[in-house]
Amino acid sequence: MDISQLVAKYEIVIRLGCFFGVFGLMAIWEWLAPKRQLSVSKTIRWANNLGMVFLNSFIVRLVFPAAGVGMAVFAEVGGWGLLHHYEAPFWAAVVASVVLLDFVIYLQHVMVHAIPVFWRLHQVHHADLDFDVTTGARFHPIEIILSMLIKFTIILLLGPPVLAVVIFEVLLNATSMFNHGNVALPIGLDRVLRWLVVTPDMHRVHHSVEDDETNSNFGFSLPWWDRLLGTYRDQPRAGHERMTIGIRTYRDKKWCSWLPGMLVMPFRGRVEDYAINRRKWESTDGLR
Ligand SMILES: [Zn+2]
Ligand SMILES: [Zn+2]
Question: Exposure of 46 by Cβ count < 10 A (0-12 exposed, 13-18 middle, 19+ buried)?
Fold first, then answer.
């Protein structure tokens, strides 16, 4: 049995092991040395954010039983995708696929901030009044489905090795829990680490209520896309301890912290600020 078959066979074990392993480590780290004080009790936050995670896992299994790995196997069997038409060394194909999938996730993240109807979904992630390991997995089910469909399309077009899809998904899951951690890394270490992976301080800027800060640091695993494409922002203006986390217009726990509110949020009210053409621009009258 080669490595691809082995990984495909134990995919669930690898995935769950990694999830609980990284989650456990981050939870202990946050408990021992939290960076910021939580504004909502941990019990309420965790019960509701993790409730969303369980709901999502259930929906994904129901709607897409084979998930990304199943799609990669399907592409392999059918000879779909670029990499099944051009000979590439196996490990080069794995690395290139993981990097490319990460780039697509970056673009997708920019898109859900830019397009008002998608921002409706993505705001559920941002409406969290605090920032901790559970924020990293808190997404509206429809955004999860949208994200799966985009990933399936890329897998069919690219035809990545099954191993690459597993590495990408496990990495994304692990880095998402790491970079949402309510933890403090030494500044020097953070500065070095930021060249390799998105750190909590880097991603926390993205959860600021200030819309220019929210529209920065879109990367999840690799930090290079923000730097290359001009969306990188070093630190929040107010500092990490004093900055306000969340969405300016959503401060009520009923919507921001409780699961039923989070599920309904995309269907409520008007989209304000944040989305690309919904900002309240200063009037330029008199200047022209
Ligand atoms: Zn975002
Ligand atoms: Zn986030």
Answer: middle
